[in-house]
Design goal:
This protein has one domain: Gcn5-related N-acetyltransferase (GNAT) (Aminopeptidase), CATH 3.40.630. The protein has seven helices and seven strands. With 248 residues, the protein is of the alpha+beta class.
Length: 248
Amino acid sequence: MLVSTECERAAQPGGVLQRMFQIDLMTMDDIPEVGRVERRCFTNPWPLSAYRRELRFPEQNYYIVLRAIDEPDGSSASLHRNEMTRRALTRLVHPFARRMEEQALPHIAGFAGMWVMYDEAHVTTIGTDPIYRGRGLGELMLVALFDEAIRRGASLLTLEVRVSNKIAQRLYEKYGMSVQGVRARYYTDNGEDAYIMWSQSLNDPAYRARLEELRMNIVNRLEPLLVDTPAFAASPSATSPSVPDIAS
């Protein structure tokens, strides 16, 4: 399966100032809308059947969506800001917390996913709707993937990225990833090569501390725009074992 790890189209202005965001587990019902967003992001999107197949194996796969929620006025936003804590991003993810009775129906602004097999986490896709780019939301989802990789006991995280996508490469480098190889003609739409990037060891205390610092920076930056859930709790660095178990 071809994996895609960056959204490439330029953002379109306007229409996003009064929206808040929530990271949630992807469900089967989300797949048609994820497909529509992906077609705006990528020239070689996955078929919807691929997502259905991925979601059937949650013990090996992990897929999330970023929901955009329209705020009718400022009162609800203020309430959510007061409720937000500054703990790890992973606990934003909760499949049942949908306290949105006074809000418009949320829609999907982004999506991300990975495989976790043995001690490796492999990011398969990450994309943000072009109208929401430039706000740090893709970074937010990347942090959620790192958090879950640590929680599941992965030792390394890897992904592919187009050699021409310097913006995405800089983001991954910010999170301690480096190019370790090339997949020739990896992208089927234009035959472009992909860089293979790997993280540092997720077992290394210094690297884990750096990831925690980066996590707190992006969560604090976006805190006024994030909807809290009851499951937003301890960081994976605090709760995972000192010697991570191998994920099944």
